[in-house]
From TrEMBL:
<dbReference type="InterPro" id="IPR050190">
    <property type="entry name" value="UPF0213_domain"/>
</dbReference>
<feature type="domain" description="GIY-YIG">
    <location>
        <begin position="1"/>
        <end position="77"/>
    </location>
</feature>
<dbReference type="InterPro" id="IPR035901">
    <property type="entry name" value="GIY-YIG_endonuc_sf"/>
</dbReference>
<comment type="similarity">
    <text>Belongs to the UPF0213 family.</text>
</comment>
<dbReference type="InterPro" id="IPR000305">
    <property type="entry name" value="GIY-YIG_endonuc"/>
</dbReference>
<protein>
    <submittedName>
        <fullName>GIY-YIG nuclease superfamily protein</fullName>
    </submittedName>
</protein>
<dbReference type="Pfam" id="PF01541">
    <property type="entry name" value="GIY-YIG"/>
</dbReference>
Protein backbone atom coordinates (compact mmCIF):
# COMPACT_ATOMS: atom_id res chain seq x y z
CA UNK A 1 0.00 0.00 0.00
CA UNK A 2 1.28 3.42 -0.95
CA UNK A 3 1.23 6.34 1.49
CA UNK A 4 1.40 10.09 0.95
CA UNK A 5 2.63 12.94 3.11
CA UNK A 6 0.63 16.09 2.50
CA UNK A 7 0.46 19.74 3.52
CA UNK A 8 -2.82 21.63 3.68
CA UNK A 9 -3.43 25.34 3.91
CA UNK A 10 -6.24 26.09 6.34
CA UNK A 11 -8.75 28.93 6.02
CA UNK A 12 -6.80 30.98 8.57
CA UNK A 13 -3.57 30.63 6.55
CA UNK A 14 -1.98 28.06 8.85
CA UNK A 15 -0.40 24.88 7.50
CA UNK A 16 -1.31 21.31 8.49
CA UNK A 17 0.81 18.24 7.70
CA UNK A 18 -0.44 14.65 7.67
CA UNK A 19 -0.23 11.24 6.03
CA UNK A 20 -2.81 9.17 4.15
CA UNK A 21 -3.27 6.39 1.62
CA UNK A 22 -5.91 8.32 -0.35
CA UNK A 23 -5.35 12.06 -0.71
CA UNK A 24 -8.70 12.82 -2.36
CA UNK A 25 -10.66 11.01 0.33
CA UNK A 26 -8.62 12.55 3.15
CA UNK A 27 -9.00 16.08 1.77
CA UNK A 28 -12.76 15.53 1.61
CA UNK A 29 -12.70 14.30 5.22
CA UNK A 30 -10.85 17.42 6.34
CA UNK A 31 -13.48 19.59 4.65
CA UNK A 32 -16.58 17.83 6.00
CA UNK A 33 -18.17 18.28 9.37
CA UNK A 34 -18.10 14.59 10.29
CA UNK A 35 -14.41 13.69 9.95
CA UNK A 36 -10.94 15.14 9.76
CA UNK A 37 -8.31 16.19 12.22
CA UNK A 38 -9.27 18.18 15.29
CA UNK A 39 -6.93 20.97 14.15
CA UNK A 40 -8.68 21.48 10.81
CA UNK A 41 -12.26 21.28 12.13
CA UNK A 42 -12.33 24.96 13.07
CA UNK A 43 -10.19 26.04 10.12
CA UNK A 44 -12.26 24.90 7.15
CA UNK A 45 -12.13 24.95 4.23
CA UNK A 46 -8.66 23.57 3.64
CA UNK A 47 -6.81 23.16 0.36
CA UNK A 48 -4.04 20.81 -0.66
CA UNK A 49 -0.71 22.56 -1.31
CA UNK A 50 1.75 19.67 -1.36
CA UNK A 51 1.92 15.90 -1.48
CA UNK A 52 4.76 13.43 -1.76
CA UNK A 53 4.59 9.64 -2.09
CA UNK A 54 6.13 7.23 0.42
CA UNK A 55 6.59 3.50 0.04
CA UNK A 56 5.18 2.55 3.45
CA UNK A 57 3.61 3.93 6.61
CA UNK A 58 6.88 4.03 8.51
CA UNK A 59 8.70 6.18 5.95
CA UNK A 60 5.62 8.41 5.57
CA UNK A 61 5.46 8.95 9.34
CA UNK A 62 9.16 9.78 9.50
CA UNK A 63 8.85 12.25 6.65
CA UNK A 64 5.76 13.81 8.26
CA UNK A 65 7.76 14.32 11.45
CA UNK A 66 10.61 15.93 9.48
CA UNK A 67 8.22 18.32 7.76
CA UNK A 68 6.42 19.21 10.99
CA UNK A 69 9.76 20.26 12.50
CA UNK A 70 10.37 22.74 9.67
CA UNK A 71 9.61 26.41 10.08
CA UNK A 72 6.69 27.87 8.15
CA UNK A 73 9.15 29.52 5.75
CA UNK A 74 10.91 26.19 5.07
CA UNK A 75 7.56 24.48 4.49
CA UNK A 76 6.59 27.16 1.98
CA UNK A 77 9.97 26.72 0.24
CA UNK A 78 9.30 22.96 0.04
CA UNK A 79 5.90 23.65 -1.51
CA UNK A 80 7.34 26.16 -3.99
CA UNK A 81 10.03 23.70 -5.11
CA UNK A 82 7.52 21.23 -6.54
Amino acid sequence: MSYFVYILECNDGSLYTGITTDITKRLDEHNTKTCGAKYTKSRRPVKLLYDEPSSDRSSASKREYEIKKLTRLKKLELIDNL
